[in-house]
Amino acid sequence: MPWDFWLILVFLGVVIPWRGHARLQKLLAMPAVDAKEKLALYGATIGFQWVLCAVVAWRAIARGLTVQELGLNSTSWLAVTIGVGGGLLIGGLQWMNLRRIGKMEGPVTDRMRNLAKHLFPVSWVEYLPYAALAITAGVCEEFIYRGFVLGAFRNTPMATWLAVILSSGLFGLAHAYQGRAGIFSTGMFGVLLALARLGLGSLVPVMIWHAGLDLAAGIAGPKYLLPAADEPIGMEGK
Question: In terms of pTM, does the model score above 0.85?
Answer without folding.
Answer: yes
